Amino acid sequence: DLEISAAFASGYLPEELEAPGPGTYERVLNLLKASGVEFSQLGPHPPCRTSEDSVRVRLEGGWSDVTLHSGAKAMLLRTANGSWLLAVLPADCKLSWKKVRALHGKATRMATEE
Hints:
The longest helix is centred in the N-terminal third of the chain and has 11 residues, at 24-34. The chain starts with a helix and ends with a strand. Helices cover 32% and strands 14% of the residues. The protein is of the alpha+beta class. The protein is built from four helices and three strands, in the order αααββαβ.
């Protein structure tokens, strides 16, 4: 497949090319571990719409020392050409749409539930 060959040539790992789904969480954990990134897991917890809700749910669940900065948010994006992007960033940070769209096209947007 020409698209996959181009992705490998640009340095993507095979797991970075897989479509989002139930295994995405495990793939992100494996990528973090393989990269030697220091992190701790604050979950699982029920899905939350906002990072602030996640902090509230964690505190109610008995986790101590939880702040907005201690969490991460995952944002699923759809690019102009129909590709998927999973942006994972600290929960207290905002995604720079200007930078994302400069890299992936002006029509890049948040994925919908459809």
